[in-house]
Specification:
It is a single chain. With about 150 residues, this protein is of the alpha+beta class. Helices cover about 15% and strands about 30% of the residues. Strands 4-7-1-8 form a four-stranded antiparallel β-sheet. Strands 2-3 form a two-stranded antiparallel sheet. The chain has a two-stranded antiparallel ribbon with strand order 5-6. Strand 2 and strand 3 form a beta hairpin. It is globular.
């Protein structure tokens, strides 16, 4: 994301959402080929999370997995399966995550939606401009936006 993209959806001067201590992690597991209208489903979830003002969202592509259908999807060479598992991970306060859940209704027709309690240790954006002590995201420092 560019600086312009990160700032969109929040009031100017509001800064990043503050996040620290007890939090809730929302994980949405879907297939890479799943779509909402013409957009990848994982992208739709990320954009809805951003529009809802959540602290951050990250998408992770799996190399192998299976779900309710019991069909194994894999990235191995010569495999016919290309619909790899994708996980969208969002971490924010319990209140904000639970308020976001209705925005997923009707969106995830096939897949798995999981909530886990977690503790945010550090949450900071690039350039050291963080939301304060006790804030974090698992993808911070891994090439993604801090937040999930």
């Amino acid at each position: 994301m560019t600086g312009r993209e990160r700032g969109a959806g929040r009031e100017r001067g509001a800064g990043p959402p503050r996040l620290g201590g007890a939090a809730l992690r929302l994980t949405v597991l879907v297939g890479e080929n799943d779509r909402h209208r013409h957009r990848p489903l994982y992208s739709e979830v990320v954009h809805r999370a951003r529009a809802a003002g959540l602290a951050g969202a990250s998408v992770f592509r799996g190399i192998e997995g299976f779900g309710a259908s019991s069909l194994v999807h894999t990235a191995r060479l010569l495999s016919l399966s290309e619909d790899l598992p994708v996980a969208v991970v969002i971490v924010d306060t319990e209140e904000r995550v639970r308020a976001f859940l209705p925005l997923l209704d009707g969106l995830v027709a096939e897949g798995l939606v999981v909530l886990d309690r977690c503790e945010v240790v550090r949450y900071a954006g690039r350039g050291g401009a963080g939301a304060g002590a006790g804030a974090a995201g698992p993808s911070d420092g891994g090439g993604g936006e801090a937040g999930a």
